[in-house]
Write a structure and sequence with these properties.
The chain has about 230 residues and is an alpha/beta fold. Helices cover about 45% and strands about 10% of the residues. It is globular, with a radius of gyration of 20 Å. The relative contact order is 0.20.
Length: about 230
């Protein structure tokens, strides 16, 4: 069983600095678990590690996907597992830093994913119609998905039509799945919330000074995925 170090915490809590310090101390490498830092064009708004920080410690899954491509939790888990085996085979303990809670949960808890479903829904379909369709097909899933959540409604309907069972059954399969890693988890916390909010405010001010608005304008001109969120 491969060993992992996982570092989590709220925005601006110091995850990047701590992970780099720890990686240098134990001579290992870092795997990012952030659903937006994977995109090449998002640098300022995602608070990616700086070039200087990236030179200090080898980072993976940072800026390796064009914004016009889709990135999902399924892809993250696949890539992260490959990197964990690679780093572990060199006698190192990989450090996972996040970021995106779903990505980390899926990796550590060995979420069981089915193959991608066929998606033939138009975005012009009213959410109410989608919700009624799901309720008729899969009442169990309908109870757990909000009627205005177009993306999850669509996915649940496609899942049922493709596999003929509820998407909620994936959760049961995951609970029974064997865990793959021995994990040491660090959770960074701020008892002084005012201090944390001050750090967040300073970060936003710094983003604006570095050209946050200009970066967003550049990205908006590209044909990127309409929903840049973990799937």
């Amino acid at each position: 069983m491969n060993r992992l170090i996982v570092i989590v915490g709220p925005t601006a809590s110091g995850k990047t600095d701590f992970s780099i310090w720890l990686a240098k101390e134990i001579r290992t490498e870092i795997i990012s678990a952030d659903s937006l830092q994977v995109y090449k064009e998002f640098n300022i708004c995602t608070s990616k590690p700086t070039l200087e920080q990236l030179e200090q410690v080898n980072h993976y899954l940072v800026g390796h996907v064009p914004v016009c491509d889709e990135y999902s939790v399924v892809r993250f888990v696949k890539e992260a597992r490959f990197l964990i085996k690679k780093i572990s085979s060199e006698g190192k303990i990989p450090i996972i830093v996040g970021g995106t809670g779903l990505y980390i949960d899926a990796l550590l808890n060995n979420f069981q994913f089915q193959h991608d479903c066929c998606d033939n829904f138009s975005e012009n379909i009213p959410n109410e119609d989608l919700y009624d369709t799901l309720r008729n097909l899969d009442s169990l899933a309908a109870k757990s998905i909000h009627k205005n959540d177009f993306k999850r409604l669509r996915r649940a309907i496609n899942f049922f039509k493709t596999f003929n069972f509820s998407i909620m059954d994936q959760k049961s399969n995951t609970m029974d799945a064997k865990k793959e890693f021995q994990v040491l988890k660090f959770g960074l916390n701020f008892r002084d919330r005012n201090l944390l909010y001050e750090r967040i405010n300073r970060r936003v001010d710094n983003m604006l000074e570095r050209g946050l608005i200009e970066e967003i304008d550049r990205v908006r001109k590209k044909k990127f995925q309409k929903q840049l969120l973990p799937l």
